[in-house]
Amino acid sequence: MALVRKAHGNKLTAMMQVRNEANRYLQSVLNDLSEYVDELVVLDDASTDDTYDLVSTYPKVVSLQRAEDSLYGVHEGALKQRLFAATVATEPDWILALDADEMFERRFKQEVRSLINQTQWDWYAFRFYHFWHSQTHYRIDKLWAPTQYGPRLFRYMRGAVYRWNDQALHGGSLPNNLVSDFPGRTSDLRIKHYGYAGSSEETLAKYQFYITRDPDSEFCPRHHYDSMLDQNPQLECWQE
User: Fold this and answer.
1) Which of 78, 93, 140, 220 is the S-S candidate for 10 at Cβ 3.0 to 4.6 Å?
2) What is the CA radius of gyration of the chain?
3) Is the pLDDT of residue 73 over 90?
C-alpha cells in the first residue's frame, strides 16, 4: 500500500491519557488545545475524581474511553497502544500527543498548520521546559535543562508500521520507530511541562511513586529520580 502524504487540509487530532487531573492543569490544557486542534481523543486511566466528567464537556472530544483499572506504572505500553487505537479509529491525518500537564507556547497556534500541511516531514520533535514549583520558572540544571527534544507530533498514514515500547513506565508518547523509519525534524517551538510546578510535597509524592514502581531503575536512572528532590535547583524565568 502506498503511503499517502497530503499537502493541504490535514486534520489535526490530539490524543491524551488522563488520570485524576480535574484539579490540576487539565482544564487549561483542554481550553488551549480546543483553540487549534480539530478533534480530541482522550483515555481516562481509571480516574477517581471528576476528570471524566470534565473532559466530556468539551465539544471537540470525539472519543472518550475509561479504563476500569489503572495501567499507569503497571503497563504504560498497553495504555499508550489503547489510546493510539482509539485515535486511529477517528481517521486522523496528524496526531499530537500531549499529557494533561503540558502546553505549547502561544505561537504554536499560529504555526502548527504550516507544520502539518506539507509533504516533506512526517514528525516533529520539541524541547521541553520543566516548570519547577512555579508556573513562571523552569529548571535549567542537570537532566532537567531544556536541551533534549522529544517527538510529539506526527503524520498518521494508513499502511505504515508503527511500533510502541512495551513497558511499565517512561515508554514515550509516540511510536518508538518514528525517528528511525520516517523523515522528521526538530522545531524551535517549545512545550511547557507543569508536572513539577506544584508544591514540594507533590514532587515528593511523584518521586515515591516512581521509585516504588521502578525500584531497580529499569526505566530511568536512579540519579535522575533523586534529582527530583534537589533543594536548590537552578531556575530561569519563562519568556514567551
Assistant:
1) 93
2) 18
3) no
